[in-house]
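The records we work with from here on pair a chain with its fold. These numbers are not coordinates but entries in a learned vocabulary of local backbone shapes. To see the layout at work, look at the sequence and tokens printed below.

. . .
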Amino acid sequence: MASKKAKGNRVQVILECTEMKESGMPGTSRYVTTKNRKNTPDRMELMKYNPILKKMTLHKEIK
């Protein structure tokens, strides 16, 4: 039986540092994580560690 696979609610997203873009420094800090589409329909924003700046910075979801 060949049935269609249902699209899952959990998707992979990329979080990118917002402070790195503003500072103009080379390089970028990105994290890959998953989110549930039903629980978080909007774009994610998390405070994550940026190893280049050596501090916690705001990371926003990109497409």
